[in-house]
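Side project, low priority. Logging it here so it doesn't get lost.
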Amino acid sequence: MGDTVLSNMRAIIKSSHEGFPSEALADKIRFTEEDIDYILATRYGQKQVFLVLSLLYPWVDYRNAFHLDHIHPQTMFSGKKLKQAHLPEQDIEFCLAHYDELPNLQILANIPNIEKSNQPFDKWLADTYKGKKYRAEFCGRQFIPDTDLHLANFREFVERRAELMRDEFVKVLQAASADECPSRIETV
C-alpha cells in the first residue's frame, strides 16, 4: 500500500469517535482477482509466506509450534529425481517452476511435519490418516484437492489446490471482481 492509502486510513481512524472504524476501513480497501493471483504466487523463503498462509488457517493455535511445510517434499524437486520418476520434460519444467509456490505449501504442526519429513505426500497422508473421515477432515482443513496426490500429478494438484485457496482468499479478503474495483487498491 502506498503512503496515500496509509494516510487516508490514518485520517479515518483519527476521525472515528466510536471505537475502531473497521467497517469504514474495509470499505476503502478491496482485493482484486489480480491481487489474489499475486498472493498465490508467493514463494517459500519470502518473508510474508507464513502470514499469507495464516489467513487460510484460522484454527492454528500459535501458542504451539508450527512449521511451513512443502506438501510434496522439496527434496523431490530436482531434475534428476523428476526424470527418475519418468515425468515428461514439460511436467519437469512445471514442477521446478512451481514447487516453492503457495499451492505446494501448508502450515503443519511441528511433530507431524517432522514425521512427514521427505516422504511422498500421498504415502504420508495414507499412513497418517488411515480412516476416510480423518483424512477428509485433514484435506478439508489444508485445502488438499480430491485428486490423485502422486508427484506425477503435481500440475493438476497445484492447479486444483490454487483454486481452493483462491476461493478461500476471496472469502477472507472479501475480494472484489476486477469490474467492481478496477484499481488494485481503492483510496479515500
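Brief comment: The first helix runs from residue 3 to 15.
Revisit when time allows.
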